[in-house]
């Protein structure tokens, strides 16, 4: 494994209790993961607060999110309480993933998180749909004005829609700050190609435990990235 390859593959974890969280984190670290997304929306509120303590001192960069059901997550509780919980776990993170509407309606939360030295990921998931390239580009530009990284995910009906979202990653002004790929088994390769085109990282899973449709596991993603990198050494990797 090349020294920088693992840095570009974020392992997504969706634990259902704190014991499972500990096991999953241990498995990710054993595989060589250096960047972990902690989907805390699968935990009870009590476990979520305990998890915040567990995450202190973790030897890997961490993206923390509590994804609501409206964005394909599991959290179905009060939105105000969800944001309070995010405030509690933010100090343990390197990145906090916030949904696009939260970024625009709660600038104070964004400022609080960034004031901790934590980066904000503006995320938007187009579930079961895909916008045109021009509209996607407008959304990215808006997101980059208020967040450190923008994450845009679509669900293409045809290959041209997957190509449009990948094309955004290669724009010089977006490189290193835009994570963009397509969901679904047919579009798994877009997760890897996005990194070769300039995305700072992409998402994978633990073996046999995908969090989203089309996710490769960490080992598969590392191997695919290394193969493509060696095949096209001139790519901006």
Any chance you could write out the topology, listing elements then pairs?
Layout (H helix, E strand, L loop, with lengths): L8 E5 L4 H14 L3 E5 L5 H10 L6 E5 L13 H11 L5 E5 H6 L1 H9 L3 E7 L7 H14 L2 E6 L4 H11 L8 E5 L5 H10 L4 E3 L13 H14 L6
Parallel strand pairs: 1-2, 1-8, 2-3, 3-4, 4-5, 5-6, 6-7
Helix pairs in contact: 7-8, 8-9
What does this structure look like?
This protein is of the alpha/beta class and 237 residues long. It is 42% helix and 17% strand. An 8-stranded parallel beta sheet has the order 7-6-5-4-3-2-1-8. The radius of gyration is 17 Å and the shape is globular.
Could you name the key traits of this structure?
single chain, 237 residues, alpha/beta, 8-stranded parallel sheet, 8 strands
Unreliable runs, pLDDT <50, ≥5 residues?
Answer: none
Overall strand count: 8
Major β-sheet annotation: 8 strands, parallel
Beta-strand portion reads 15-25%
User: Strand arrangement, largest sheet?
Assistant: 7-6-5-4-3-2-1-8
- Derived from helix and strand composition plus strand pairing, the structural class reads alpha/beta
Number of helices: 9
How far apart are the termini? 14 Å
CA-atom Rg in angstroms:
17 Å
Pattern of helices and strands: EHEHEHEHHEHEHEHEH
The portion of residues assigned to helices is: 40-55%
Average pLDDT rating: 92
């Amino acid at each position: 494994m090349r020294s920088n390859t693992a840095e570009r593959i974020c392992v997504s974890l969706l634990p259902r209790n704190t014991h499972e969280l500990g096991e999953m984190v241990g498995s990710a670290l054993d595989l060589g993961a250096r960047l972990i997304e902690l989907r805390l929306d699968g935990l009870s509120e009590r476990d979520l607060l305990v998890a915040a303590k567990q995450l202190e001192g973790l030897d890997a960069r961490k993206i923390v999110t509590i994804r609501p059901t409206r964005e394909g997550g599991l959290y179905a509780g009060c939105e105000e309480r969800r944001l309070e919980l995010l405030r509690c776990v933010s100090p343990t993170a390197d990145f906090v993933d916030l949904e696009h509407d939260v970024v625009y309606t709660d600038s104070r939360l964004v400022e609080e998180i960034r004031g901790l030295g934590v980066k904000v990921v503006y995320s938007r998931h187009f579930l079961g749909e895909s916008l045109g390239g021009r509209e996607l580009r407008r959304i990215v530009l808006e997101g980059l004005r208020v967040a450190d990284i923008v994450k845009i995910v679509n669900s293409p009906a045809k290959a041209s829609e997957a190509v449009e979202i990948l094309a955004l990653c290669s724009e010089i002004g977006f490189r290193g700050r835009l994570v963009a790929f397509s969901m679904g088994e047919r579009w798994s390769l877009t997760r890897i190609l996005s990194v070769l085109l300039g995305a700072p990282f992409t998402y994978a899973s633990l073996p046999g435990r995908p969090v989203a449709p089309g996710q490769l596991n960490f080992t598969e993603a590392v191997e695919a990235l290394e193969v493509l990198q060696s095949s096209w050494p001139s790519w901006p990797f």
